[in-house]
Amino acid sequence: MTHEIPALRLEKIERRYAQADAPLEILKGANLDLWAGQSVALIAPSGAGKSTLLHIAGLLERPDGGEVYVAGAPAASLSDDARTQLRRVEIGFVYQFHHLLPEFTALENVMLPQMIAGLSRKAAATRAREILDYLGLARRADHRPAELSGGEQQRVAIARAVANGPGLLLADEPTGNLDPKTADHVFGALAQIVRATGLAALIATHNMELAERMDRRVTLHEGLLFELD
Ligand code: ADP
Ligand code: MG
């Protein structure tokens, strides 16, 4: 199936940090098209700029040059409010550490973004339960993060990231803190969500074995993105 509009398009993305002498150039014109229903692994050494790229793609940071298109809409020059709004609806983020709210149950953590987006408590709870069930977490719904294993915490974080039905899921080394077997399980959950919902996923990882299971692999080298294989 072909889609005319990519879920995410990065066009000539530049990012540099000021230094005493010459600026530190992290991204020097990176390009990427990410299509609905596709999972893409981003594999590059530490310091290559993976997190920077994901933050720019996720509208958390502005590029110094180039444009980010989310579902076809240019986002780099939108106001902060408009970017927040777009992010809330279109983008889910999973980090290396789960960042779940410790005082709330798994269910409530998945409900919150939906309620912030305007859903009623009841509708949010129904959908949160569905997603948690889908990820094999039905019996963990009423537990707080501290009562969950690392793999369960990350699966709840994935459930939270997709709670508002985003077109784009960004994950920054989501299994970097897990043992291999648990990492495998969490990656399985990511792949399952991508297939089931048709969202596009960009996942930074150091794990080649898991990256092989994604639809595409890309790397960052000297500030540019390259297709692997
Ligand atoms: P990765 O996620 O691939 O490890 P990052 O995107 O975190 O890489 O960082 C890329 C480079 O940019 C690193 O050299 C890092 O030190 C530098 N960097 C990141 N954020 C800043 C910042 N706010 N100020 C200066 N340098 C930064
Ligand atoms: Mg990083």
Fold and architecture overview:
The structure is a single chain. The mean pLDDT is 94. α5 (150-161) runs parallel beside α6 (180-197). A hairpin with a 2-residue loop joins β4 and β5 (73-74). The chain is globular and about 55 Å long. A six-stranded mixed sheet has the order 6-7-8-3-9-10. The chain has a four-stranded antiparallel sheet with strand order 2-1-4-5, with helices on one face. It is an alpha/beta fold. Helices cover 34% and strands 25% of the residues.
Radius of gyration: 17 Å
Strands in their spatial order, largest beta sheet: 6-7-8-3-9-10
Q: What is the β-strand count?
A: 10
State the end-to-end distance.
22 Å
Average pLDDT rating:
94
H/E topology pattern: EEEHEEHEHHHEHEHEE
> Which cofactors or ions or other ligands sit in this model?
adenosine-5'-diphosphate, magnesium ion
Q: What is the count of DSSP helices, taking H or I runs of 4+ residues?
A: 7
Strand content: 15-25%
User: Ranges with pLDDT <50 over ≥5 residues?
Assistant: none
Alpha-beta classification: alpha/beta
Keywords:
alpha/beta; 229 residues; single chain; binds adenosine-5'-diphosphate; six-stranded mixed sheet
In short:
With 229 residues, the protein is α/β, with parallel strands linked by helices. It has seven helices and ten strands. Strands 6-7-8-3-9-10 form a six-stranded mixed β-sheet. A four-stranded antiparallel β-sheet has the order 2-1-4-5, covered by helices on one side.
SSE layout:
Blueprint: E1 8-17, E2 24-34, E3 39-42, H1 50-57, E4 65-70, E5 73-74, H2 80-90, E6 91-94, H3 106-116, H4 121-134, H5 150-161, E7 168-172, H6 180-197, E8 200-204, H7 208-211, E9 216-221, E10 224-227
Parallel strand pairs: 3-8, 3-9, 6-7, 7-8
Antiparallel strand pairs: 1-2, 1-4, 4-5, 9-10
The structure holds adenosine-5'-diphosphate and magnesium ion (MG).
